[in-house]
Amino acid sequence: MTAEKKALSDIEIASKSSMKKIAEIGSMLGIQEEELELYGPYKAKLSDELLTRLKKDQDGKLILVTSINPTPAGEGKSTVTVGLGQALNKIGKKAVIAMREPSLGPVMGLKGGAAGGGYSQVLPMDDINLHFTGDLHAITSANNALSAFIDNHIHQGNELDFDPGRIVWKRALDMNDRALRNVVTGLGGSANGLVREDHFDITAASEIMAVLCMADDLLDLKKRLSEMIAGYTSGRKPVTVGDLGVEGALALLLKDAIKPNLVQTIENTPALIHGGPFANIAHGCNSMIATKTALKLGEYAVTEAGFGADLGAEKFLNIKSPAGGLKPAAVVIVATVRALKMHGGISKADLHKPNGSAMIEGCKNLQKHIETIQEFGLPYVVAINRFTADAEEEITLLKNWCSEHGHPCAAADVWEKGGRGGTDLAKIVDELAAQKSVFSPLYSKEDSFSEKARKIAVKVYGAEGVTFTPKAKKQLAEIQENGWGHLPVCMAKTQYSLSDDPVKLGRPEHFSVTIREVKASAGAGFIVAKTGEIMTMPGLPKKPAALNMDVDEHGKAKGLF
């Protein structure tokens, strides 16, 4: 690697890159210029007319990218997703990438950006990481409009008999703001509404985000919005958005946000960036529409699911795939030497020192994620995301471990070399995708909620079982009474551990998962089971990434990774 490359940050690399006009990227995919809704020269939304036209076209093959449990050392799953898409094009395949949109909370907080990295990133990365085409703002607006409609309904006479103590709909903000987790509204007299306790979620945790990402089209979106639960009556009966009669207004606010966004990678590979539910507190996948559109536009659609295979991939395969009739052709499991050493007991401060024994110990975490993908019956490959400071002997040791255990693997130098650094990985993916696989979710719709949760905990996390708090048992009884017991389970769990305890790295044993709260997301089509101390409104760290961000006199962003 040259000294120049060493000195460049992701945003500096992006600023030196040459983008093609987005109409030209669309033309590469057979999209007519009038089928694009332009947001400047380098971003566009795909029109309804295009999405309708594509429905009759044949699907390509779906590649799912997941990873081991994330650590502060970094895994680079998004970077590998972008690099793999570029690499498939390098070996003569037509690939389209489908990814989630970043949330401002993590961008300004811990991550600093979420558009890939190095020479495998999506552009324009500053726009994508900030306001992009306004999708998250539209979701925030729709979420908070519903809150206003609920409070106004109660203020104007409460015809639907809302129990103010059982309003389950929360307000939202696309920022980490711990001060808004618990608030009191309606202060200042009766003219300002009913005094009640309220709460904020981060926008990525809003059910409207999940609904938009699960919907097949605008009509399905409206139907799902109408089924969302706003609260309960004094007789403990659910009150839905449809009961309030405002699903049309919410859909109107989302009519543009539901359209996928087309951008490009640093090597001009087409990428659809759309939707962004978190995987630790939501289902962690980009929109159904974007994934299905990528399958129509390319021989390969390369998509990712949030965090490790215990979260994003499990939800992609148990929730999104059955709902959308999707079947991945192969799965890529991303691991890094640095992260494996942390799972093997090494502190972040000592990761620069070669330590093969710690890395092999950390491979227990990788092995469990491999076993999870095997449970679904899917072919897989381990992608060793190479960091420039990795010792070659550790890379070789990890390759040997994979070989000894019968796991296909390839090193991916996509941060430093872009697509050409991932061609070995791309060739293995192409071979795996040609094989026949027998994909099936881990549970059936007929299984009880408890059995679904148990299968996830045992088969995916390696737990001995699940336990329910008295509160969760009571909520589950109400869910079953209201007819939602058939829905799939969306586990809200820490991303850092296979267990529900974030400090238990590696492959924990002899533990049980405690479900402390259960909530029906009837519009999204799943039941959320909250475990551990997971929160739906994160806080900012002591030194947020925002401290390094700035803009120059020409409007160019600085410090976004």
Explained architecture:
This protein has 561 residues and is an alpha/beta fold. It has 3 domains: 304 residues, Rossmann fold, CATH 3.40.50; 119 residues, 2-Layer Sandwich (Domain 2, N(10)-formyltetrahydrofolate synthetase); 83 residues, Roll (Formyltetrahydrofolate synthetase, domain 3). Helices cover 37% and strands 19% of the residues. The strands form 6 sheets. Strands 1, 2, 3, 4, 5, 6, 14, 15, 16, 17, 18 and 19 form a 12-stranded mixed sheet that branches. It has a 4-stranded mixed sheet with strand order 20-22-23-21. It has a 3-stranded antiparallel sheet with strand order 7-12-13. A hairpin with a 4-residue loop joins β14 and β15. α16 packs across α17. The protein is globular, with a radius of gyration of 23 Å. The two termini are 19 Å apart.
Domain count: the total is 3
Class computed from helices, strands and strand pairing: alpha/beta
Percentage beta strand: 15-25%
| Radius of gyration, taken over Cα atoms and rounded to an integer in Å | 23 Å
CATH-level-2 architecture of the largest domain: 3-Layer(aba) Sandwich
The CATH superfamily of the largest domain appears as: P-loop containing nucleotide triphosphate hydrolases
Head-to-tail CA distance between termini: 19 Å
Under CATH at level 1, the class of the largest domain stands as: Alpha Beta
Largest sheet: 12 strands, mixed
CATH topology of the largest domain: Rossmann fold
Helix content: 25-40%
Structural shape: globular
Query: How many DSSP H or I helices?
Result: 21
Mean pLDDT: 95
